[in-house]
Amino acid sequence: MAALTEKRRPTEVRVWDPFVRIAHWLLAAAFLVSYLTEGKPQWLHVWSGYLVAAIVVLRIVWGLVGPRHARFADFVPSPRAALRYLADLVRLRAPRHLGHSPAGGAMIVALILSLSITAGTGIALLAIRENQGPLAPWLGGQVVAAAPTPSKPGERVPKPGRMVKEVHELFSNLTLLLVGFHVLGVAVASFAHRENLVRAMITGRKRAPDPSARQAAAE
Ligand code: HEM
Ligand code: HEM
Question: What is the best residue among 12, 13, 15, 24 to mutate for testing ligand 1's pocket, by most ligand atoms within 8 Å of CB?
Fold first, then answer.
């Protein structure tokens, strides 16, 4: 009986290394804290934002030197491949991929770019407004010195770095939108391929490829 169950249960293979998994869940948590704090309290916003920035930088390095399924070369698709996969996915006939699918790969590139701009403008804003952080020596002193001062008491003057703040807010909202599509894509792909991708991002393991199925061509 035990042997029978063993025979029926498909074997699993390791796909996501511990760095990818820990970085993913830390990034998700740090992004949500940054988004929800909206700049205040500043210490929490800034430190969760720095965590986002650090994970993004490390993930980029890992994408160049990490193991096979973590590498950009393994999953960054051509736009055509990503669109073809999406069109097949909505018809529930997309081939299964052991690593990231072409649409998943395109989403990762978009998330990394959008997160980099959000964190980068945040760091610039902190330098301009508070003369703090790693960009303070370049942006802090000059902009604060050039900031307009009220000519009469009580007059409201625009704070410096308004444009940077607009871009920071725009990209933090764009990232949230991408995250919404990312989670939707994970749900649809999990349904289409009858596998729990969230569990795979926790355990690192996925069902071994079935050599007789179409998926084999897509590994
Ligand atoms: C609770 C919400 C989330 C769930 C359920 C989730 C789930 C997943 C899953 C299952 C994968 C692997 C996809 C695949 O099999 O190809 C993945 C990858 C990824 N997700 Fe999420 N995710 C969530 C939130 C986020 C957030 C908030 C971010 C960033 C702001 C994010 C960024 C990424 C990135 C960058 C990858 C690529 C992982 C890598 O190769 O390093 N995710 N996510
Ligand atoms: C990457 C994740 C981040 C997200 C999602 C995010 C999101 C936001 C949002 C929504 C606001 C409010 C904008 C408004 O009120 O119009 C804000 C403000 C701000 N953020 Fe971020 N941020 C992130 C990272 C950072 C980082 C890394 C820093 C600096 C190290 C930073 C510094 C600031 C500052 C200084 C403000 C302005 C606070 C104020 O003057 O009211 N942010 N951020």
Answer: 24
